[in-house]
Amino acid sequence: MSRFIVLLRIITHILKISIVLAVLLLTLGASNSAAPASELDNLRAFTRSQEFDFVWWTVKALAIKWGQGSLGVSEYLSEAARQKIVLEYLDLVLECLRKQQQINQIYSDPRVADPEAESIALRKEFTELTRRRDELGPLAEAIVQSQISTVVSDMGLEVSGQTIPPVLYHTTEPPWGLVISRRDRIEQIENISLDPALTVDQLEILEDEIDQARNVSTLAVGIGGIGLYPTMVMQTWDVNWLMEVVSHEWVHNFLTLHPLGVSYLNSPPLRIINETTADIAGVEIGAAVIKRFYPEKAPSPPAAPHSNTNQTRRSSEPMHPADFQFNAYMHSVRVTVDHLLAEGKVEEAETFMEYQRKVFAAHGYLIRKINQAYFAFYGAYASQPGGAAGNDPVGEAVRKLRAQSASLTNFLNQIAWVYTWQQLQEMVTQQ
């Protein structure tokens, strides 16, 4: 190997580290609350002891990524071998979950007199599967990062051959997002990240305490990923979902280096623009990765309607009647709620949402709570018309700009420089 190549690799490595640190600083800065300090302090009085430690998680994740980069094993594998490793890892994730469910069933069955003895073989298998999964995980992550980087570079989202920022993610159990909205209108006040070990009953107690003390609407939601650096992504066995979510979170990192990402918390419309942009781009990039590297895993047409990644957490999707359209019905609920709140009928809106939650349950959609916080969170993901966004025009404007753009790269390079809702409106009108 020539001295020039060695020097070039050293320079590239230093550049990557610099980018990591820059994005980290921007990301951690962007995670600060948009709520006034006094209001945030009042809210965090309820959550401080249960909040997720992002700094410590990021330090550990960067250490893992540093180790992956120093090894560079994935670069020397054939494409077929790389694909095999990723799919084997995802199969191990699924097998671990299945074994865990079997063990849980034994311990839950009152007919089993000695669950510890009954499950000994399964627990041994689970331990071995977990060991293999954890050993293969870092290499699988490095391969996925490289595959997404290749596709993103081919799209033209690069600088001198380098994807900026480099694609980095780490699989983990994401924290719960405690979403807090006003009651008199659907508007997110705060989103506080909580320890993922908290149980649903603990979360409900916390939600009720905050609601009663601060006169707000609160909901703890499961999330698929967070745009830190490296990005945090929930464990999955679905290669299509994985590519979409890792791409979605990379887009957030990309936007963080531009006015749109920096302005994320400046207003509710800017949050919707950010999330809808990441949703649209994440779907397109993820699909391109599948088409290039895992064509046999592409969804069979017609593909299932896309829903935002945050609604897939900690539950398996039940069977639903074919004549019940979730997005269309949720859209009508949101429109009615907005109308009631605009008339000052807060209690009526809340009664209506609880009734509609039961309607969804009757059709197989089990939703723990539908309230203002629910719509404040899910309504920001407006890559598809209808759904929880209701008639909010912001998501529609983002979709229009994408439709008017010649390519995804052109779309991202335009919208990344938006820092007000008015700018986006003018941009769409001028196309």
What attributes does this structure have?
6% strand; 6 strands; mainly alpha; single chain; disordered N terminus
What is the topological layout?
Layout: H1 3-30, H2 37-47, H3 54-71, H4 79-108, H5 115-118, H6 120-154, E1 169-172, E2 176-181, E3 188-194, H7 200-214, E4 217-221, E5 225-226, E6 231-234, H8 239-256, H9 259-262, H10 268-293, H11 326-342, H12 346-362, H13 372-378, H14 393-404, H15 408-415, H16 421-430
Parallel strand pairs: 1-6
Antiparallel strand pairs: 2-3, 2-4, 5-6
What does this structure look like?
The protein is mainly alpha-helical and 431 residues long. The strands form two sheets. A three-stranded mixed sheet has the order 1-6-5. The model is unreliable at 1-15, 28-33 and 303-319 (pLDDT under 50). Helix content is 60%, strand content 6%. It starts with a helix and ends with a helix. Strand 2 (176-181) and strand 3 form a beta hairpin. It has helices spanning 3-30, 37-47, 54-71, 79-108, 115-118, 120-154, 200-214, 239-256, 259-262, 268-293, 326-342, 346-362, 372-378, 393-404, 408-415, 421-430, and strands at residues 169-172, 176-181, 188-194, 217-221, 225-226, 231-234. It is built from 16 helices and six strands. Helix 6 (120-154) crosses helix 10 (268-293) and helix 14 (393-404) packs across helix 16.
